[in-house]
Amino acid sequence: MERPAGIFDVRYEQDMAIVRTGPQWAFLIGFLILLAVLPVFAGSYFLGFMILTGIALIAVQGLNILTGYAGQISLGHQAFVAVGAYTTAVLMDSFHWNFWATVPLAGIAAAAFGVLFGLPSFRLKMLYLAMTTLAAQFIIIAFFNHAFPDYFHAVGGIRVSRPELAGINFKNNEAFYYVVIAIAVIMTIFAKNLVRGRLGRAFVALRDNDLASEVIGINVARYKLYAFAIGCFYAGVAGSLWATYYRSVNPLHFHLDVSIWYLGCLIVGGMGTAVGAVFGVVFLRVIRELVTIISPFLSGLVSPMDAPKIGPALAIISWALVVILFLIFEPRGLAHTWEVLKSRFRHWPFKYSI
Amino acid sequence: MAIFLQFIVGGLFLGGIYTLIALGIVIIYKSTRVFNFAQGWMVTLGAFMLVTLVEKFGVVIGVIGGIAFGALIGIVIERLLMRPLIGQPLIAALLLTIMLAHVIEGINILIWGTFGYEMPVNLPGQSIKFAGVVVSHALLWGIGVAVAAFAAFSLFYWRTLMGRVMRGTAEDHQVAQSLGLPVKGVFSLSWVLAGFLSIIAGLFLGVVSGVHYIMYGSLLGAIAVVLLGGIDSIVGAIVGGMILGVLQSLVTGYLNPALADVIPYIVLLLILIIKPYGLFGLVRIERL
To answer: Which among B88, B96, B272 has CB closest to A128?
Structure first.
């Protein structure tokens, strides 16, 4: 880890600290204050954008632990989000639970499903494991689509109401924004810290060479399951918020494309860095919003026959193409670009860079 | 009994389509170690292109043009997207083909829209009656072409010089390169062959069930076929394809169509748990 010139660590606490210098504290606190006061001057549209970004961020942080750190590619992350969403929805709809009690339970349910579909990872890795998660995607969604129609209501979906706490009603987006952002910030910090400890080191060793890590005493099978459990716990919490934000749960929401989109966020941001997940999600979300804004104009330019095609086509092509460009030209993602920029700034006017 | 036979023939046809797609995936995987997730989407793109070309230029020129287009897709993907990734982790290539699948889906919607097309090709021959069952000749064509493609590729791999070069490249890229084999040429050729196979699959699938941009949904089952048969096995592609096709058809007929949609994934999960390298796949032993 590079430090600005003249800053030396003389104690272990300094060496381990995430936030190291005064300006970093200033930026961090400034950013948190900005997040806190945002609803005061931001419109409802922008808040909706922020809420969805926060929910996606929680899911992608989980995927980052599972794929970025532990190296277990998951093509079915949205299915685990669905498990969380359905847990919350069914508990609130059929059993009249309190929303706040269902959130951790949604995480735990998703983690249980994750461990179940992670079990083949004892024998499989890489491509083969990615294919089991692909199977998980389709099997779980088919399960919600066809099993227990009394609880899951199949294609009709379940209606979910927004929660209340201490007299505050979270029906409007301004209040719900705080719930999502608070959980997203807490879970990002947790993810960042988790991977700095024993668990995270084991994950990284596992990712870089599973045979070697087994030789040096890491119980590969157990740590793979830990990765699945933690990654899917994140997905479950994200699903719980997803259900309450959209106020309904429907199998159609949890399509394979979204799972792939999460992976795309990870690639764009940079796998294996907590800040990369943030960059990736924000970047692809912004692109998605830009496309929604631009496509009506483009539709106007072509003949009326072709106009309805533009929106859905651009919505897919835009992000997939961006991810391809990142894979080819910057496989380490925006997190690496960010490091390079910081390094340039520190060494300016010299040309040192990392 | 007649119904049963009907389902078997339908299943064999589906299995034939699966085989054609799985063959494409297997051929690319064998020589480049890249798992082409986008093969099903390439079939969709090829089928759309065939519809357009056949409507414009008639059947003969249209189909020839379509096949040329398939080879072109293969070479463009290899040159533009896969070549820059040589030397990067293989998982990057897998992720790239996944993203490529979405780009192709977007292109399909952009050009051909979200409605279905009919493939304006009449296959020679007519439906035949066999043991009291009327069997559409299109189904038989599909099955026959799949078997022929399997036979042709087996012969190509085991009897021709180029096939031997491809098998050599599949063993070890660096050794092959140092022995003077045209490794990059083999990569290109594999993608061209896969593009060619995707057009053939698109043609017969299009004749039987029409062309629609969400066609890939049913074609994703080919991934289960590849893993069932063994990811680097050409025999596995046809055996796995036929097993899965018939199984899916029978489940549709006798149990529940909704269950049939997830049958490939259940098979996929089971085979990966029981026999991870598939029925005919080469078991690779890893060393530190």
So the answer is: B272
